[in-house]
Amino acid sequence: MCSLPGRELAAAGGLREGLPVDMVGHMTSPTFADLTTIGVGGSIARFIEPDSRVGVIEAVEDADDRGVPLCVIGGGSNMLVSDEPFMGFVVRDARRSIGVPDEVAPVEGDDRTVHVSAEAGTNWDDLVEFCVRLGLEGVEGLSGIPGTVGASVVQNIGAYGQEVADSVDSVEVWDRETKKVVELTPADLHFGYRTSALKSSMYQAPATPADKYFPTPRYVVLSVTFALRHSATGVVNVGQLARALGVETGTRLETQAIRDAVLAVRAGKGMLEDPNRYASPWMRGTKEDRTIAAAMDALKAVNGSTDPDYNRHSCGSFFMNPVLTADAAATLPEDAPRFAAPLPDGSGTQGVKTSAAWLIDHAGFHKGFAVREGAAASLSTMHTLALTNRGSATAADVAELARTVQNGVESAFGVRLVPEPVAIGIDLR
């Protein structure tokens, strides 16, 4: 096996045994429970944390050459992993630098575009904070979303009137098929609602893994370049945010004020990660100390303490908002939310998007719902769209809750909710 830069932690006996302990029973590798925001998941046969571009590529190639499962993990915020041992490689990119290539280029005319490049392992909110602090507009509405820059373009993260697709200029990837580094444009990426060409390469149908590339896409993100606007103000795009700021939709405000409001609204719904996770030895160094401290201060301001907040021990929004055909949408109750949106089949046909949270609530699953009294997994007490670990849940507990909600919504409305997180070793079709 090639020597990999960065931190490598492997099981005694290698992949054949796959047990992440040394000869005297000490843990030498993290579990998925250590690496994910929901805090569940089994042991890992081999954990590799390369700190160079070459190291990332070599780790991916090594797994592919051996024919073992490969999971390239970012912040662990959008995945639900089985309690069973993962008999493969888990690779986490330790490169976290951010650069501004335009700093040395003269401004031409009225063009206020500024390009920002970030390595795939960069914490997403660290990037947003950097851009806002630099006086750049374009990602402030995406404040507080957990995860990494690399994962952001796979999922096409979005919130409060912005999507990452709006700002992506190019994405540098390693193509596992051709074994080449490729630069992809937004046109190549085929961005859609919570999807991209990267994510599509992992699935043959919604929630149905592809035969070859799962749980890591064909294209492994190495870095992303964003095209932002040099402006200290941004547009308040959605009503919920406008109400929080006391302004009309469409108003321009300082991007820092917009960021602060987004974080406050998210905190009010429990839709932020728990910053306590960065005290874990397996998470140290993955997020800037400055933004961790700010998040801890905010947690104390909201909850009165910095104790763990179990409403935040989740995958965020667990189900995607369904996009239905006009005929299917017509069968929903009259008061169900409806928004125009293209169907996810890529045909360009217009469909109707409805609210997963509305369907869940109106199917009888209210905030705090659990499959039984005292269950270790429940819906958040603040938001029906978040499935949470109340401190001792297993992946099986969370999966049981997810299936109960899926089955109930389908029985009530004929709509099968599709999970947003990547489900590894768990069937949530």
TrEMBL record:
One MF term in the entry's GO annotations: UDP-N-acetylmuramate dehydrogenase activity
Cofactor: FAD
Compartment annotation: Cytoplasm
Pathway(s) served: Cell wall biogenesis; peptidoglycan biosynthesis
Any one biological process term the GO annotation gives: regulation of cell shape
Protein EC: 1.3.1.98
Domain named FAD-binding PCMH-type: residues: 40-231
Catalytic reaction list: UDP-N-acetyl-alpha-D-muramate + NADP(+) = UDP-N-acetyl-3-O-(1-carboxyvinyl)-alpha-D-glucosamine + NADPH + H(+)
Top class in the EC scheme: oxidoreductase
Cleavable signal peptide: none
Keywords: Cell cycle, Cell division, Cell shape, Cell wall biogenesis/degradation, Cytoplasm, FAD, Flavoprotein, NADP, Oxidoreductase, Peptidoglycan synthesis
Cellular component annotations (GO), alphabetically ordered: cytosol
Active site: R194, S317 (proton donor), E420
Superkingdom of source: Bacteria
Role noted for this protein: Cell wall formation.
Family named by the database record: Belongs to the MurB family.
Protein name in the entry: UDP-N-acetylenolpyruvoylglucosamine reductase
Gene name, Swiss-Prot/TrEMBL: murB
